[in-house]
Amino acid sequence: MSVLPPATAPLTEAEAYAAFADMLDGKPDEEEIASFLSDMTDRGERADEIAGAARAMRERLIPIEAPEGAIDVCGTGGDGHHTLNVSTAVSLVVAACGVPVAKHGNRAASSKAGAADTLEALGLDMDAAGRTAEHTLREIGICFLFAKNHHPAMARIQPIRQKLGKRTIFNLMGPLSNPARVRRQLIGIARPAYVPIYADAMSRLGTERTFIVSGDEGLDELSLDEGNEVADVQGRDVTMKRVRAEDAGLPHAPVEAIRGGDPAHNARALEALLMGAPGPYRDAVVFNAAGSLLVAGEVDSWQDGAEEAAEALDKGLAKQLLDCWIAAAK
């Protein structure tokens, strides 16, 4: 007997919540889950479905305590551009500016180097970082929340996702299920046309302020290339905006200019960035950090955010923070 409703037709938020609660609790068999997820992906997820699914996931996570004003900076992944680790570097810069960052992430799925892979290559002990997350977030202003440590219900789902070999709604649920329960975020998604849909889902879940961003070329972060779709979500209100690099006083650059590689390659690039290396990678990090500082309420404009982020790099504050983090996560 089927446990899940047919996913070929749209579900209400309540129906989606119930379906994903059953899924995360291990009630349907693997074949039924795979068919359900595939059908939903093929027709396209709705805002109420994303919100309902995220509620179910949030109820089953292992939370941590976070200081007031903590934010997250992450992307859904799956954009296929294989860029350097922008949101990881942004997290270091923003934390160096005094805004606590509860970085939610994982190892690479579709890219060559996820946040966890690159941080590990830089010398951060990922197991220790997990054990000391609350401490480092409180004392240093940053932590890494390894998804597998905080979402045990996903252990059965992950192999099904890998067998499917395509994007599913679970790609969208991760950024909405931060274990620190942050109320301010910058979330990158890989589909510009989906920004308002995802923003609608976020407004249903509750947020003080979140930017949902997508580069015109399908980049899951703010792009230096052409322009960006940005949804500014404040409570239930959603405002759509177009944002370009020059809004932050930065030059344009093609996405190829920040193409990444394996964890060792990306770690070297991030290290050089923290040591003051100029170029498109720095500009991309400064751009996304500016948006993050705006979301956090630290600055009032893209220009001010870019200047504060650049200062954190130029003064070596982001490098100092990483060194402190590595030393503390033992």
TrEMBL record:
<dbReference type="GO" id="GO:0000287">
    <property type="term" value="F:magnesium ion binding"/>
</dbReference>
<feature type="binding site">
    <location>
        <position position="221"/>
    </location>
    <ligand>
        <name>Mg(2+) 2</name>
    </ligand>
</feature>
<feature type="binding site">
    <location>
        <begin position="103"/>
        <end position="111"/>
    </location>
    <ligand>
        <name>5-phospho-alpha-D-ribose 1-diphosphate</name>
    </ligand>
</feature>
<comment type="subunit">
    <text>Homodimer.</text>
</comment>
<comment type="similarity">
    <text>Belongs to the anthranilate phosphoribosyltransferase family.</text>
</comment>
<feature type="binding site">
    <location>
        <position position="221"/>
    </location>
    <ligand>
        <name>Mg(2+) 1</name>
    </ligand>
</feature>
<feature type="binding site">
    <location>
        <position position="220"/>
    </location>
    <ligand>
        <name>Mg(2+) 2</name>
    </ligand>
</feature>
<protein>
    <recommendedName>
        <fullName>Anthranilate phosphoribosyltransferase</fullName>
        <ecNumber>2.4.2.18</ecNumber>
    </recommendedName>
</protein>
<dbReference type="InterPro" id="IPR000312">
    <property type="entry name" value="Glycosyl_Trfase_fam3"/>
</dbReference>
<keyword id="KW-0057">Aromatic amino acid biosynthesis</keyword>
<dbReference type="GO" id="GO:0005829">
    <property type="term" value="C:cytosol"/>
</dbReference>
<dbReference type="InterPro" id="IPR005940">
    <property type="entry name" value="Anthranilate_Pribosyl_Tfrase"/>
</dbReference>
<keyword id="KW-0328">Glycosyltransferase</keyword>
<feature type="binding site">
    <location>
        <position position="83"/>
    </location>
    <ligand>
        <name>5-phospho-alpha-D-ribose 1-diphosphate</name>
    </ligand>
</feature>
<feature type="binding site">
    <location>
        <position position="75"/>
    </location>
    <ligand>
        <name>anthranilate 1</name>
    </ligand>
</feature>
<keyword id="KW-0808">Transferase</keyword>
<dbReference type="InterPro" id="IPR036320">
    <property type="entry name" value="Glycosyl_Trfase_fam3_N_dom_sf"/>
</dbReference>
<feature type="binding site">
    <location>
        <begin position="78"/>
        <end position="79"/>
    </location>
    <ligand>
        <name>5-phospho-alpha-D-ribose 1-diphosphate</name>
    </ligand>
</feature>
<feature type="binding site">
    <location>
        <position position="115"/>
    </location>
    <ligand>
        <name>5-phospho-alpha-D-ribose 1-diphosphate</name>
    </ligand>
</feature>
<dbReference type="Pfam" id="PF00591">
    <property type="entry name" value="Glycos_transf_3"/>
</dbReference>
<feature type="binding site">
    <location>
        <position position="75"/>
    </location>
    <ligand>
        <name>5-phospho-alpha-D-ribose 1-diphosphate</name>
    </ligand>
</feature>
<dbReference type="GO" id="GO:0000162">
    <property type="term" value="P:L-tryptophan biosynthetic process"/>
</dbReference>
<keyword id="KW-0460">Magnesium</keyword>
<dbReference type="InterPro" id="IPR017459">
    <property type="entry name" value="Glycosyl_Trfase_fam3_N_dom"/>
</dbReference>
<dbReference type="Pfam" id="PF02885">
    <property type="entry name" value="Glycos_trans_3N"/>
</dbReference>
<dbReference type="InterPro" id="IPR035902">
    <property type="entry name" value="Nuc_phospho_transferase"/>
</dbReference>
<keyword id="KW-0479">Metal-binding</keyword>
<comment type="similarity">
    <text>In the C-terminal section; belongs to the anthranilate phosphoribosyltransferase family.</text>
</comment>
<keyword id="KW-0028">Amino-acid biosynthesis</keyword>
<comment type="function">
    <text>Catalyzes the transfer of the phosphoribosyl group of 5-phosphorylribose-1-pyrophosphate (PRPP) to anthranilate to yield N-(5'-phosphoribosyl)-anthranilate (PRA).</text>
</comment>
<feature type="binding site">
    <location>
        <begin position="85"/>
        <end position="88"/>
    </location>
    <ligand>
        <name>5-phospho-alpha-D-ribose 1-diphosphate</name>
    </ligand>
</feature>
<comment type="pathway">
    <text>Amino-acid biosynthesis; L-tryptophan biosynthesis; L-tryptophan from chorismate: step 2/5.</text>
</comment>
<feature type="binding site">
    <location>
        <position position="106"/>
    </location>
    <ligand>
        <name>anthranilate 1</name>
    </ligand>
</feature>
<dbReference type="GO" id="GO:0004048">
    <property type="term" value="F:anthranilate phosphoribosyltransferase activity"/>
</dbReference>
<feature type="binding site">
    <location>
        <position position="161"/>
    </location>
    <ligand>
        <name>anthranilate 2</name>
    </ligand>
</feature>
<keyword id="KW-0822">Tryptophan biosynthesis</keyword>
<feature type="binding site">
    <location>
        <position position="87"/>
    </location>
    <ligand>
        <name>Mg(2+) 1</name>
    </ligand>
</feature>
